[in-house]
Amino acid sequence: MKYFQLSELLHTDERSCAIFIEKSKITKSNNQLIADNHIRKEVINYGLFCSIIMGRGTSITHDAMELLASTNTSLVVASNECKSIQMLSLSPTANTTKIYKQIEILQNENKLKDVQNSLLNERFNANTSYDEYQKLGQEGHFMKCLYQDKSKEYGVKWIHRDYNATCGINARLNLLNSCLYGITTAVIHTLGMSPYIGFIHKSSSLPFVYDLSDCVKKETSIDVAFECESKQTTNEMMINMFIDRCDGLKITKKLSTIALSILK
Question: What's the mean pLDDT when you consider all of the chain?
C-alpha cells in the first residue's frame, strides 16, 4: 500500500469538490477504485476529488478505504433521513509544519485575534472584531436574518434551526452541511493542516473545519438547501446540485486560500 507525500497529491485548487455515488459497491482493483451498481462498472479517479459522498445502498471495502486514506480523501455517508456520517482519512506521511504554525497562533494572543477577525470578515463580508462578535451575539443575528431572507426568496416556511430534523428544510441543511464539512476536511488535510486546531469554534469536535466552512455556507449548502426544499427535489438531486454549485464557485480554491492566508 503506497501512501503519497503531500507534494505528490493534486493541489486543492485542481481537485473537484466531491463525487456522489449511490446504489453501488465501491471496491479496489489493480490500484483503482471501482463503483459497481450491477449494471456497469465505473472507475473513480481517486485523488481528483476532495470527498466521496455515498448515497443509499452503497458500500465500500476495506481496501478501497485504504486507497482514499492514501490521498487524504474524505468520505461522507448520507442516509435517507438526511443525516450523515463523516469519515476522515489521513495519510501517515503528512507533514506537521503547518500544524505547528496553527498551534503558534493559538499561543499568541495578538496573532489569534488577527486570525479570528480575518475569518469573521471573510464570513460576514464586513469589518467585524471577535470581541464584538462575542459581545453582541453577531452570529445568531446574522444566521437568523440569513435564514429569513432565504425563506422569503424561495417561499420556504422557516421557524428555527433543528439539528435533529429528519425531514424538511432543517434536514436538508443538516445533510448538505455535513457534505461541506467532508470537502473542507479533505482540503485541510491536503494542505497539511489540522482540522482539530481552530480559532473560533475552539471547543467543537472539528473546530477548523467549522471555521472554514462557515465562510462559504451562505452560497453553497444553505442556498442549495432552500432552493431544493422549494422545488421538493430528491436528496440525490440536491447533493448533485450542491456539488455542481461548489465546483462552479471553485470552493476548494477559496477554502485553501482562506486557510493558507491564516498562516502568513
Answer: 85
Sequence-separated (6 or more) residues with CB below 8 Å from residue 227:
154, 241
Domains of the chain and any CATH numbers: 6-87 (3.100.10.20), 97-262 (1.20.120.920)
**CA neighbor of 246 nearest in space, from 181, 194, 190:** 181
Alpha carbon distance 170, 71 (integer Å): 32
Strands 49-54 and 74-78: parallel
Q: Give per-residue pLDDT as tens, 237-257.
A: 999 999 999 999 999 999 999
pLDDT in tens, 142-169: 888 899 999 999 999 999 999 888 889 9
Q: What distance in Å separates the CA atoms of residue 193 and residue 219, rounded to the nearest whole number?
A: 24
User: 3-class DSSP state for residue 172?
Assistant: helix
Q: Do 186 and 73 form a contact (C-beta atoms < 8 A)?
A: yes
**How would you class 145 by CB atoms within 10 Å of its CB: exposed for 0-12, middle for 13-18, buried for 19 or more?**
exposed
Output phi, psi for 170, to 5 deg: -65, -40
Alpha helical stretches, state H, 125-222:
130-136, 138-154, 168-191, 207-213
CB hemisphere CA count around 131 (13 angstroms):
4
For the chain, give percent helix, strand, coil, nearest 5: 50, 15, 35
Tell how far CA 27 is from the center of its chain.
Answer: 24
Instruction: Name the band, by pLDDT with cuts 50, 70 and 90, for residue 2.
Output: very low
For the chain, the residue count is 264
Is pTM beyond 0.90 here?
Answer: no
* Locus of grid cell 460576514: 124
